[in-house]
Amino acid sequence: MRKLILLGLVGLAAQLVDGGLGMAYGVTTSTLLLFIGTNPAAASATVHLAEIGTTFVSGASHWKFGNVDWHVVVKVGVPGAIGAFLGATALSNLDADVAKPVMSSILLVLGLYVLTRFTFKGIRTDRMGQRLRARFLAPLGLFAGFIDATGGGGWGPVGTPALLASGRIEPRRVIGSISASEFLVTVAASLGFLVSLGSEGVKFTWVLALLLGGVIAAPIAAWLAKHVPPRILGSAVGGLIVLTNTRTILRSDWVDPSSATMWTIYGVIWAGWAFAIFWSVLQHRLDATQGITTEQEHQALAGSSTH
Question: What is the pTM of this model?
């Protein structure tokens, strides 16, 4: 019962993050599941099964509010589903001792990206309205889907910034389209895990706990999206992901650092994390003096809708 409550809190925390940033539900949840000792493949399978419900509701909501570009959904979602199925199969066939540092390495890279992306933001607007081509969307979907399944998350952290950086689609449609297409990716990843693993290592009570935690957090996440500066939240969460997955890698068989080296690395991460949060707070206050509200900041980063 204690673990179920903890998992519910994990789902709640991840949904709060996702609601505030428009991404990072899978990355955050998988990181925390690994931290409490869950098998990597089972962790990713659990997250994706829970996300079937959350991504369906999210995608439907974005469609209702006109935030979905179906051209983007099809062109990025179908290759994403293929990549997710392949990624789930690959992860399921890795030995757990190998898979854990591999998964943590992927999450570490994504965490660094989230940290730097939200600490030092920048979105192109000079090409807004130009059509996104399949030759860009298909490889992006394939890569993001594979990373999402093998890393336990990554569809949002990879797909959303890439579409935003293209400067060709307005932010709210980026978030809505990524949200709607993620349902295809989540279903494909879940099928890949079930085909490769069966129900081995997947506890459906855990899936339910994560799902319930996310449902409870949804209205709070909506409030966060409007009132808490996403730049600051992104820096805080990105640092947490980096620190946690660095810890997992340093304690794996891949490396054997001395105690002094390990604590030096931790110190550098803590210092960098503190600077990132300080810088985000400073820049947010500067924006506030120029009349930029938290809601406008959120729209500039990730659209007016939550994911």
Answer: 0.69
Closest CA to 305 of 19, 36, 42, 38: 19
Give me the phi and psi of 202, to 5 degrees please. Answer: -100, 120
Half-sphere exposure (CA, 13 Å, Cβ side) for 226? Answer: 5
User: CA-to-CA distance for 175 and 305, rounded, in angstroms?
Assistant: 7
- What does the pLDDT look like over 148-205, one tens digit per residue? 888 777 787 778 777 766 767 776 777 778 888 989 999 999 999 888 877 666 778 8
Domain assignments of the chain as residue spans, ordered by start = 2-302
Question: 92-125: per-residue pLDDT in tens?
Answer: 887 766 777 877 888 788 788 878 877 887 444 5
Q: Compute and round to an integer the Cα radius of gyration of the chain.
A: 18
* Closest CA relative to residue 178, chosen from 26, 12, 295, 47: 26
| Separation between Cα atoms, residue 235 and residue 154, nearest integer Å | 17
CA distances from 21 to 4, 206, 234 (A): 26, 24, 7
Q: How far is CA 245 from the centre of its chain?
A: 14
